[in-house]
Every structure is written in structure tokens, then in C-alpha cells.
Design brief:
By secondary structure, this protein is mainly alpha-helical. It contains 9 helices and no strands. The mean pLDDT is 87.
Length: 187
Amino acid sequence: MSARTRSEERRAEIVRAAVEVIAERGYRGASLAAVAERVGLTQQGLLHHFPTKEALLVAVLEERDQWDAVPDSRWRVDLLAALVEYNAMRPGIIQTFSALLGESVTEGHPAREYFTERYTRVRESMAAVLRTEYGDRLPNGLTPERTAPLLVAVMDGLQYQWLLDPESVDMPGAFRDFLRLLGEDVS
């Protein structure tokens, strides 16, 4: 195995550990020392791979985006329901994302710019999905651009409710109910 391959594997291991630590403690409560300990490194050894906590955070967010990567041209409304079902099978990732999202609204948080840009892209992508599905107007009379922020809010809001009380909140079922409100025929 080459040194580069070992380094890439070690970076991936560090990112996985960081996801776990952030899910448990939040970004502000997560320390490089805790991540390093989890992968059997010293903090100095971890800094060899990620020179700052912010660099590690960016790697965590980029990794999470890769897990959900689907070309915009392939998204459909029914696939959004499948994504919600998939998310219900990976609470640790959703918890990490939600913790970082919640913390990112504070001034100076290193993920603030990432989430601001991400939400701009996601709203645009959801508007395109809705436009492909419904044209310029949904059955409820709203435009895809007016509906897209609502769609994103429902997806993320359901995640928070589900994380807090998974026994009481059927995240996939509630999302299918929302799609019915949009005029979708979902089973």
C-alpha cells in the first residue's frame, strides 16, 4: 500500500471519528484531542492531516455531501421521499448535520458560509425539481421558487423533530404527507 493511500485512509478514518464526536458533543464541544484519541493519534498527529479544527469541519461537511450526491438533473420528487427514508436509517449523520446547522447560525461560526451557500444551492435545486414535475405552477398555485424553501424547511424540520423523539415522529411518513399537500400521489 502506498504512503498516499495510507494517508487517504487515515484522513477518512479521522473524518468518520469527527462525525461521531460532533454528533455527540456538537462542533463547539468537539475537540481535536477527542477526535485524535478516537483514532489512536496524538493531537499533533491529527494536525498533520488537518491543520485546523475548521479544516476538519470542512472535510466532514464535504464528506456528508458526497453521501447524498445525486446530479441535479436526476432528482425527482419521489426520490426526495426516498432520501428522507434513507436519512431515517442513519441517525448519527443526521445528528451531526443538524448539530452543525444549528450552531452555524451564530456569528463567526466556521460553517456559517458553507450552510448559507448550501441552502442557496438546495433551494435552487428544489425549485428545478418542482418546475420539472409541475411546470410554472404547482396544483396549489404556488411557483416552484415559492415552494422550494417550504420543501427544504419541511425536510430539515422533520429531521430535528425525529432526532428529538424518533418514537413519535415518523419522518418518512410525515414527508409523504407533505408531498400529498403538494399534489403528489405517493403511497
